């Protein structure tokens, strides 16, 4: 084989391998997909493309493909976040035990100052809105709710629910009545404050918050205690005081670099940041200083260092 043939052979081989790797990526559950970015070659780029495909795949149901870029630009410009079933769908796709169903409603949380921008975009896409007060469980965090509906040519309809936060979109996420609502997609990140529960398709009820919101709990096994847990709590103990920044229980995945789309340029991959884990200091996780706790009690029979520490301390009190 001469040099030209060799070059041709090598580049043909790498294109072929990338096609196979892209196909492998499309079958992986979320956590394995994110581990794949450490594989050699173009795997980081392949993981980027696959995460984008999954996120765009959900948005596309509500916003025609041509408008997805405008939609993500507006998420970015208005610090709006996607919540609820759409985020769980992305996180549970290809999960070996839990098959998520494509959500019928897209929930967004934004601030009052950004409502006009969203009304403008959604009405240009054929949506009509009605205004209502939030469900009881969201009243502390949500000022008003706008329900957008669009009827398609085939007679079916799609719905977007815009939750207008009293303070920040992050506060709406944290104010969820169960841990199932504590997942979000921002214009650059996928954030899960309870990843172990989310990937088990389980949720814990937040004590003292009434669960009357079907959107927050649809399709998720919801428990009022962790007595059935089979592993020690670690960072996931329901008694642990949590906060949105520097929190070692959260999983934060970066799916797109913090830049606005420019023309037809490919989206950039943020190689410099930690794409899996909790070390990413982001604008989003610093946007509110709230802290929260799932419960005052831990019933985990397989062990909990938080509870043991508390009990040993109480002997001296
Ligand atoms: Zn515990």
Question: What can you see in these coordinates?
Answer:
By secondary structure, this protein is α+β, with helices and mostly antiparallel strands. The chain has one domain. Helices cover 32% and strands 16% of the residues. The protein has helices at 3-27, 30-36, 43-59, 68-78, 85-92, 115-124, 169-174, 195-199, 214-217, 305-314, and strands at 81-83, 105-111, 128-132, 142-151, 157-165, 183-185, 189-192, 202-204, 221-223, 251-254. The strands form two sheets. An eight-stranded mixed beta sheet has the order 3-4-5-2-1-6-7-10. The model is unreliable at 258-281 (pLDDT under 50).
What is shown here, in short?
By secondary structure, the protein is of the alpha+beta class. It is 32% helix and 16% strand.
Lateral arrangement of strands in the main beta sheet: 3-4-5-2-1-6-7-10
The number of helical runs is 10
Q: Can you give the mean pLDDT?
A: 81
Separation of the first and last Cα atoms: 81 Å
Proportion of strand residues: 15-25%
What is the helix fraction of residues, given as a range? 25-40%
């Amino acid at each position: 084989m001469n040099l030209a043939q060799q070059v041709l052979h090598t580049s043909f081989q790498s294109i072929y391998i990338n096609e196979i790797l892209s196909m492998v990526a499309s079958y992986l559950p979320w956590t394995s997909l994110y581990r794949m970015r450490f594989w050699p070659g173009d795997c980081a780029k392949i993981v980027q493309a696959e995460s984008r495909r999954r996120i765009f795949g959900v948005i596309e149901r509500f916003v025609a493909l041509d408008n997805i870029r405008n939609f993500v630009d507006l998420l970015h410009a208005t610090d709006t976040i996607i919540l609820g079933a759409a985020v769980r769908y992305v996180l549970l796709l290809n999960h070996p035990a839990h098959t998520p169903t494509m959500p019928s409603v897209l929930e967004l949380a934004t601030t009052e100052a950004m409502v006009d921008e969203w009304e403008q975009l959604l009405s240009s896409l054929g949506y009509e809105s009605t205004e209502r007060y939030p469900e009881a469980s969201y009243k502390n965090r949500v000022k008003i709710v706008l329900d957008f509906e669009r009827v398609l040519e085939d007679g079916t309809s799609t719905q977007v629910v815009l939750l207008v936060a009293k303070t920040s979109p992050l506060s709406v996420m944290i104010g969820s009545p169960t841990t199932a609502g504590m997942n979000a997609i921002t214009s650059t990140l996928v954030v899960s404050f309870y990843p172990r529960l989310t990937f088990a398709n389980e949720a814990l009820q937040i004590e003292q918050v009434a669960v009357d919101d079907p959107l927050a709990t649809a399709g998720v096994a919801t428990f009022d205690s962790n007595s059935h847990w089979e592993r020690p709590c670690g960072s996931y103990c329901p008694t642990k005081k949590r906060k949105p920044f520097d929190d070692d229980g959260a999983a934060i995945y970066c799916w797109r670099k913090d830049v606005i789309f420019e023309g037809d340029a490919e989206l950039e991959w943020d190689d410099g940041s930690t794409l899996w884990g909790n070390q990413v200091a982001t604008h989003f996780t610093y946007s509110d200083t709230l802290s929260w706790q799932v419960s005052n009690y831990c019933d985990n029979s397989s062990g909990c260092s938080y509870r043991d520490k508390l009990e040993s301390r109480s002997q001296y009190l």
